[in-house]
UniProtKB/TrEMBL annotation:
Keyword set, alphabetical order: Oxidoreductase
GO molecular-function terms, A-Z: oxidoreductase activity
Listed name of the protein: FAD-dependent oxidoreductase
UniProt keyword annotation of DNA-binding present: no
Protein's organism: Paenalkalicoccus suaedae
Domain Amine oxidase, first and last residues per copy: 12-418
Xref: InterPro entries: Amino_oxidase, FAD/NAD-bd_sf, Flavin_amine_oxidase, Flavin_MAO
Length: 426
């Protein structure tokens, strides 16, 4: 018998789930609150030339096989990130190289195990368990403030460690990128799927032995099962039947949205390959700010295609700046950029700002973090079907959490798990 499934959300997780369900010959209904698909995968494309800038997610590595496969099937290639290899990481505004030993301390995280809520601590306290100096703690705190996009005092150390342990690669996560707009990958997936009901947010989900009912502002949809493919902190705002509340609500409420502001500058030449550092000329690949914390600048060039620097402003600082006018944010950010790379910071030919703070449809930041004081492994519960319902997002995946690869894998896993669940139900 053909199963009817509703997929809520047309980001990468939802599109991946829908693709798997279509391949299983299911009857699909897709609902998306925004007027377009993609979620945090969003490309700005110039109307004048072929220039594009990724407003949200951007990077992959070659171990992210589902993303590589998707890009290839869409007719796009993979290129390396960075104007050229062998750049180094520096601390800003000091412009001092960051020692490899500091990054080696991340290996200590593999030895830290938190299995019970009573053992959990705030992420900010986790640094004290690492064999590093106070200055190194400040640097790592800034790194994680940008990477997690949430104040480390609010983040569960257990939740953070789970992200670290679910990164199934020995490579850095930014080594490569797609040589073309990521929105083309979204369009490639959409072409293979039924029509999506855009600008139609789900409001409530009701589930019983007979099936599921999803209510939107426009109408009511019924099906055998539902995949809720939106970030958990966003999904927590929906209304659920009592059985779903008792099973899922605590896990959904365990997440807190991240916050990130992403500013990209394009240049004629990659001058950061020859920066005058404290003691020598250096090739900067990345700068992490110690003051203020939660800021990094990266060489995000698509090698051989463009020359770009991108500033990522995370957590509390992003929330503060999001209340200001964009011109004011840029003025402040460019002063920080000057501290990292010098006066040539102002010689850019193009600039683009994107803000992911408290977005009602996509959440914020790179993803939602597990809140300290909540469940320590909510992702384990949310990604498994119950009462004809399952959740899918990059936060919940078994591998590559908080990455596009993780979203694709989460969607496929949710679809196959739900179909198996429904088959057992008969």
């Amino acid at each position: 018998m053909t199963q009817s499934i509703i997929v809520i959300g047309a980001g990468l997780a939802g599109l991946s789930a829908a693709t798997a369900l279509k391949n299983a010959n299911c009857h699909l209904t897709m609902l998306e609150a925004a007027p377009q698909a993609g979620g945090k995968v969003k490309s700005w494309i110039s109307e004048k030339d072929d220039t594009y800038i990724e407003e949200g997610a951007q990077f992959i590595n070659t171990d992210m096989t589902q993303m590589v496969k998707l890009a290839t099937s869409a007719g796009l290639s993979i290129v390396q990130t960075g104007s050229k290899p062998d750049g180094i990481s520096i601390a800003a505004p000091e412009q001092a190289p960051i020692s490899d030993e500091l990054f080696d301390h991340e290996d200590e995280l593999d030895d830290i195990v938190i299995t019970r809520k009573e053992e959990d601590i705030p992420l900010s306290s986790l640094y004290n368990r690492l064999d590093i100096t106070k200055d190194e703690q400040q640097l790592i705190s800034s790194m994680y403030g940008e990477l997690i996009n949430v104040n480390p005092q609010l983040v569960s150390a257990a939740g953070f460690l789970s992200i670290h342990k679910r990164f199934a690669s020995m490579q850095d996560d930014t080594t490569h990128q797609v040589a073309g707009p990521l929105s083309h990958l979204v369009g490639h997936l959409l072409k293979q799927l039924p029509t999506v009901h855009f600008s139609e947010p789900a409001r409530s989900i009701f589930s019983d032995e007979k099936g599921v009912t999803v209510q939107t502002d426009k109408q009511e949809y019924q099906a055998d099962g539902v995949v809720i493919a939106v970030p958990p902190a966003v999904a927590s705002k929906l209304t659920y039947s009592s059985n779903l509340v008792s099973h899922f609500k605590q896990a959904l409420d365990s997440y807190i949205n991240g916050s990130i502001i992403k500013i990209t500058w394009e240049y004629e030449t990659p001058f950061w390959e020859e920066l005058k550092g404290r003691d020598e000329v250096i090739h900067m690949a990345e700068a992490t700010f110690t003051t203020p914390q939660g800021i990094s600048v990266q060489d995000t060039s698509a090698r051989g295609i463009n020359n770009r620097l991108t500033m990522f402003i995370g957590a509390d600082l992003a929330e503060e700046l999001a209340t200001k006018k964009e011109d004011d944010v840029v003025r402040i950010a460019e002063e920080w950029l000057k501290e990292a790379v010098g006066e040539r910071a102002f010689t850019y030919s193009r600039r683009h700002v994107s803000t992911w703070v408290n977005d009602p449809l996509c959440g914020g930041g790179y993803g939602a973090a597990v809140r300290y004081g909540s469940m320590i492994a909510p992702y384990e519960l949310l990604r498994e079907p119950y009462a004809r319902t399952v959740f899918a997002s990059s936060e919940l995946t078994k591998e590559f959490a908080h990455h596009m690869e993780g979203a694709l894998r989460a969607g496929k896993y949710a679809a196959t798990s739900l179909l198996s669940f429904l088959k057992k139900k008969g």
